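Worked example 3 (structure in, sequence out).
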């Protein structure tokens, strides 16, 4: 497959850019800080399908639909990560296909030839969408995920790395082992994560993922809600209840869940309607809201993140309306109170209900994900507070045992919706952080992330290196500067280091246009001829000894070595990262460190070279007969061959 194929989106913040793109003969990436690498990699001659994705109900099932609105050929790539010049096909007729949850990103490569035929080379196919489907197994899709999950393990095992996989799998409803049927490589998967990541809570867009790192000074007020100072338009300091990241994403998930239960087509979600209200107020701050009593109309003075300050007919502005309560009234979760400030809600509700959407697609529940990195670094009881109870799966909204709590600052009722998932990471080696609360442990599913030495196999490293540098030719000087030290590390055979022999292995991969795990096996025979350092065997040997002496919680993760591309890289990693870690684990007992990495990295001296003073009760002679060990430094291995030989003793002895 020489031609490359891509599905590309064309909606920014819900606004279609298709007409403009067709008119100007371009496709434009709507992000300034996402998808740049993928866009720059699109070659001239590539085929693009301008698409949308949505869902519909059919026989009680939710069907994921891929709508194809235009096809075109790339004629120029400006390499700015934004603009592709495109010759769009004339007289194109839009069609739909059962998308089976695929190609949802702003830009996704299409490598499956059956899907290429269905999208780009239909050849007179006139079947309706219900009879056509992309060649992905519908069994790959699922909505069965643990509500609360913690990935735990020693440092460097890819816990944070894998939260990206987990979050995308949950948000898109795809079984994690099958993600790479829908994403061609890690870059596309990370692009999808970035696309779903919410960076601006005032404009979350289509985001479904939030990310936070716990630390010792993290508090309930940061995570759930708290009273924070802010300035108004008159530069006066005021105080208001500000939602934290958990409350923010819980409200988004709740709004989607309630909206999906609302069968009224064309009615906007609360978030959409509220956004329209805010825009309308910004255009006309004097807009009036009706009351039951004629002549008592009120206006909105300003909005905060959790409330609406309004101006009564008499001019007073001392009261506020809760946005959370307004959401409950909008979805009829509770009756509007006809007393107190409750009499002011109907006027705003009337405006919210007046906004009508033009989207007739079926409303579906989306999954939302909160990723908490280093979850055990914070004071869990203090950060979660009463919400520890609400986290349990059977305590979520819609469940038989659902529970609602009253938040202490806003006095709003709060519950966690069933479509919000929490994924945390926990470092088992760090003795300085809090142990997880027993009550919290019971509410989480724990998944161990152990070191994976197999990711460091020589054939895999070579495969990754070639794909990382696919843009170069074999004789490119910039490429040769990268290849030479890498091949020295591997001990790549000199008689195979020529274009003809390397093309035997690389040629078939290049034709497939994308890195596939299945390609690695083809390099196994070549890797058997390597004479350099085997990082897989190195890590495996080190960890077996650490587990024997110190336990599995403090083993070395593969991430420490995953980016090593030269002997110099390995020296720096070993002496600046791994050995200092062993020093901490072994309390600077260098003899114990020697049990892990061997005498090649230690200097030995006898204690009798030191003149100990005699003290009653101490056997000075016995103490003089002992050994003292010192770690060698990186300067002791200026010679690369000496260093390579020393490293090999770790796993060959």
């Amino acid at each position: 497959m020489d031609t490359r194929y891509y599905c590309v989106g064309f909606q920014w913040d819900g606004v279609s850019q298709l007409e403009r793109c067709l008119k100007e003969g371009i496709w434009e990436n709507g992000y300034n800080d996402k998808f740049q690498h993928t866009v720059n990699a699109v070659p001239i001659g590539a085929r693009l399908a301008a698409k949308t994705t949505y869902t519909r109900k059919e026989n009680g099932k939710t069907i994921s639909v891929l709508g194809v609105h235009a096809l075109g050929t790339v004629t120029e790539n400006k390499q700015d990560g934004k603009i592709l010049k495109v010759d769009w096909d004339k007289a194109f007729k839009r069609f739909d296909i059962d998308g089976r949850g695929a190609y949802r990103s702003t830009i996704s490569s299409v490598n499956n030839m059956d899907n290429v035929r269905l999208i780009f080379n239909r050849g007179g196919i006139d079947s309706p969408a219900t009879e056509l489907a992309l060649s992905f197994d519908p069994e790959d899709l699922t909505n069965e995920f643990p509500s609360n999950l913690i990935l735990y393990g020693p440092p460097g095992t890819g816990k944070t790395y894998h939260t990206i996989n987990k979050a995308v799998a949950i948000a898109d409803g795809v079984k994690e082992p099958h993600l790479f049927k829908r994403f061609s490589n890690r870059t596309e998967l990370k692009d999808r994560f970035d696309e779903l990541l919410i960076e601006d809570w005032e404009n979350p867009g289509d985001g479904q993922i939030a990310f936070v790192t716990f630390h010792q000074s993290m508090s309930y007020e940061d995570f759930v809600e708290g009273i924070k100072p802010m300035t108004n338009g008159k530069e006066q300091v005021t105080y208001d209840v500000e939602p934290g990241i958990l409350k923010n994403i819980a409200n988004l998930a709740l709004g989607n869940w309630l909206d999906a239960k609302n069968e009224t087509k064309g009615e906007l979600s609360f978030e959409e309607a509220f956004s329209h209200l805010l825009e309308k107020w910004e255009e006309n701050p004097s807009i009036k809201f009706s009351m039951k009593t004629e002549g008592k109309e009120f206006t909105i003075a300003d909005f905060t993140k959790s409330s609406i300050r309004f101006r009564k007919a008499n001019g007073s502005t001392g009261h506020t309306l809760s946005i959370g309560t307004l959401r409950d009234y909008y979805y009829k979760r509770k009756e509007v109170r006809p007393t107190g400030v409750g009499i002011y809600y109907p006027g705003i509700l009337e405006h919210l209900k007046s906004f009508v959407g033009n989207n007739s697609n079926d409303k579906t529940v989306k999954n939302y994900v909160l990723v908490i990195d280093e979850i055990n670094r914070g004071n869990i009881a203090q950060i979660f507070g009463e919400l520890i109870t609400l986290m349990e799966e059977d305590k979520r909204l819609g469940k038989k045992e659902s529970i609602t709590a009253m938040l202490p600052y806003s006095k709003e009722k709060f519950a966690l919706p069933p479509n919000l998932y929490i994924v945390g990471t926990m470092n088992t080696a760090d003795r300085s952080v809090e142990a997880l609360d027993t009550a919290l442990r019971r509410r989480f599913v724990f998944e161990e992330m152990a070191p994976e030495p197999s990711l460091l196999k020589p054939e895999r490293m070579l495969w990754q290196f070639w794909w990382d540098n696919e843009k170069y030719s074999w004789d490119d000087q910039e490429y040769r500067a990268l290849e030479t030290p890498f091949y020295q590390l591997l001990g790549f055979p000199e008689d195979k280091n020529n274009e003809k022999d390397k093309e035997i292995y690389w040629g078939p991969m290049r034709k497939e246009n994308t890195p596939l795990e299945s390609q690695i096996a083809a390099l196994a025979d070549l890797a058997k001829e390597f004479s350099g350092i085997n990082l897989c065997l190195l890590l495996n040997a080190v960890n077996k000894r650490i587990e024997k002496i110190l336990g599995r919680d403090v083993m070395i993760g593969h991430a420490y070595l995953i980016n090593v591309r030269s002997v110099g890289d390995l020296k720096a990693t070993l002496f600046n990262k791994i050995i200092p870690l062993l020093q901490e684990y072994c309390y600077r007992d260098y003899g114990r460190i020697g049990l892990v990495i061997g005498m090649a990295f230690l200097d030995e001296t006898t204690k009798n070279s030191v003149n100990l003073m005699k003290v009653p009760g101490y056997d000075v002679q016995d103490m003089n007969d002992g050994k003292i060990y010192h770690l060698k430094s990186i300067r002791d291995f200026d010679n690369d061959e000496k260093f390579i030989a020393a490293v090999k003793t770790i796993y060959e002895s």
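Notes: The two ends are 47 Å apart (CA to CA). Residues 567-585 form the longest helix (19 residues).
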